[in-house]
Amino acid sequence: MADDQPFEIPQQLRELAERNVEQARAAYGQFIDAIAQAMGLWATTMPSNEMTSAVKAVQDRTIEFAKQNGVAYFALASELAEAKDIQDAFAIQSRYAQAQMQTYALQAQEFGRLLADAAQRMQPRG
Q1: Is 3 helix (H, G, I), strand (E, B) or coil?
Q2: 14 phi/psi in degrees, rounded to 5
Q3: pLDDT (tens digit, 0 to 9) for every residue of the chain, 126 residues total?
Q4: Which sequence spans correspond to the domains of the chain?
Q5: Considering only CA atoms, which of 66, 77, 76 is closest in space to residue 104?
Q6: What is the distance between the alpha carbons of residues 53 and 1, in angstroms, rounded to a whole number?
């Protein structure tokens, strides 16, 4: 006789997944911090002018976007690690995909504005 109960992901496996997510989250945080620090050091070696400040604004926002997207991704991973069954995992993934598509669209708009501003600042005045 067929069992109508959905497959449930064992608690031990969910706990292991959550520990792995936390380790990956910490490594990603260190990676992003190192990139931000390297970009900051690079910016201090450049002469201060409008072009440099425009590029710095793009760099800073790029790092912020990476941090925001990383936080969202690791929140997804944590939720998925707690999913009790496949249907729960699909629902979590669907919510994440919808929210991130909106976030990516907003980030792309802002990034476009920053790049346009940077390009405008680089135009010769005259």
Answers
A1: coil
A2: -65, -40
A3: 455 666 788 888 888 988 998 999 999 999 999 988 888 887 777 776 766 788 888 888 999 999 999 999 999 999 999 998 999 999 999 999 999 999 999 999 999 999 998 888 777 766
A4: 11-121
A5: 66
A6: 70
